[in-house]
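Objective 1b. Sequence-to-structure analysis of ABC transporter ATP-binding protein.
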Amino acid sequence: MTALAVPDARADDPFGINAFREEGGSDNAVVLDEVTKRYGRGTLALDGIDLRVRRGEFVCFVGASGCGKSTLLNIVSGLDKATSGRVSVAGRPALMFQEHALMPWLSSLDNVALPMRLAGVPKAQRLERAHELLASVHLGDVVDKRPHELSGGMRQRVALARTLATESQVLLMDEPFGALDAMTRDLLHDELESVWRARGLTVLFVTHNVREAVRLADRVVLLSSRPGRVVQEYPIELARPRRFDDPAVGSATGQITTALRKEVARHGD
Ligand SMILES: Nc1ncnc2c1ncn2[C@@H]1O[C@H](COP(=O)(O)OP(=O)(O)OP(=O)(O)O)[C@@H](O)[C@H]1O
């Protein structure tokens, strides 16, 4: 699986920016109405998901293993199709996974420039932009290094810069920091938060870690065990920047974890 949904290249609109499907003056970047997904004749993965994500909102999804979180992101990204229901997204989203899937033979710079190369952006322009993006995730000094020469955290930062290179306004992140140590993850939270704010991005972020969700989100959406349904939504109105170990983050984490445990237990998962 690739780590990135690369927009279809169009000469007049390489990043698909003009492909935004406006919701009749709506402030929503993502709208899901009664979205259901069944794989073949078998697993019912999602069952009647209704969701509205405002432009610029940061929404985290938590739920039991196998409840359909990745399926949901894949449907929003366009990689997969809903069996029924309506999906509406403002433009073409970019998708980032836990595994960075960088091209091992390319430097950091060329990895970040890749989506722009595929979109037909001229070389000088894409290299300049790739330099800027790497600097924005504090990797300006490793532009020539290849993935095996970087730490896990640095590789995920290159992957984040590459995701941003699509110029998508909607980022879909599927446990992007799940494999990183706590310290590195903390740094990446700061970087993601600053890029999110600076660019006014809309982020849909899947995690198993409730504390991470509370650290980052404007709203945490709890999904039921399979088939995934929205059980509860938690607006997180704590001041930013938040720290992982803030007592208020801990208390919201406790509340959501209790609900998640109940949900997991209800299904004997
Ligand atoms: N391509 C597929 N074909 C058949 N079943 C699938 C397919 N992809 C996912 N599923 C099933 O759909 C359900 C939801 O899977 P999904 O990966 O979306 O869950 P998840 O919440 O992301 O899981 P996890 O938290 O373990 O990553 C699971 O039961 C899974 O086995």
